[in-house]
Design goal:
The protein starts with 5 loop residues before the first helix and ends with a helix. The longest helix is centred in the middle third of the chain and has 33 residues. Helix 2 runs antiparallel to helix 3. The protein is mainly alpha-helical and about 150 residues long. Helices cover about 80% and strands about 0% of the residues. The radius of gyration is 17 Å and the shape is elongated. It has one domain.
Length: about 150
């Protein structure tokens, strides 16, 4: 089931754009002087992957399933975004010898991911953008699946 379909492409494009745009909202919340690095580009790629693999593959099952698929894709985008960004931060600090051992580094990674997750989902523009983008990806991929079989 790795063949390309219109539904996968549409879901990938919309969730990729959602990840990129939401990165701009999150960067406003970061402390002053924080270098975001590849933050928006990584979230764009994660959105494309989640849209292609999860949302687009499940298209064609009806409107209510499309909304659920979109919300699942949004939740996965949030999870993988937090995981990858927290891992990146942990790796950056580990290479500067800020941790005494691997367990301390993993615990710091989980703590940072949780902290950023709470910060993100308690910021209403981020939460609204995530929900709108996720539902749009689900519905648009459903429409693409119906139109281009």
């Amino acid at each position: 089931m790795i063949y390309p379909t219109a539904a996968k492409l549409v879901a990938a494009l919309i969730l990729g754009a959602t990840g990129f745009l939401l990165s701009g909202l999150v960067m406003v919340l970061l402390p002053e002087g924080t270098d975001p690095g590849w933050f928006p580009q990584i979230n764009l790629v994660l959105g494309v992957l989640v849209g292609w693999i999860t949302v687009g593959r499940r298209a064609g099952r009806g409107i209510s399933a499309a909304i659920g698929n979109g919300l699942t894709g949004g939740a996965l985008l949030l999870f993988w975004g937090l995981f990858v960004q927290a891992f990146n931060e942990m790796l950056r600090l580990a290479l500067r010898k800020r941790y005494d051992g691997p367990m301390e580094a993993l615990m710091a990674m989980l703590g940072k991911g949780f902290e950023w997750g709470v910060l993100s989902v308690t910021y209403p523009p981020f939460l609204i953008g995530l929900l709108v983008g996720a539902v749009a990806a689900g519905l648009a991929s459903e429409m693409a699946a119906k139109l281009w079989r």
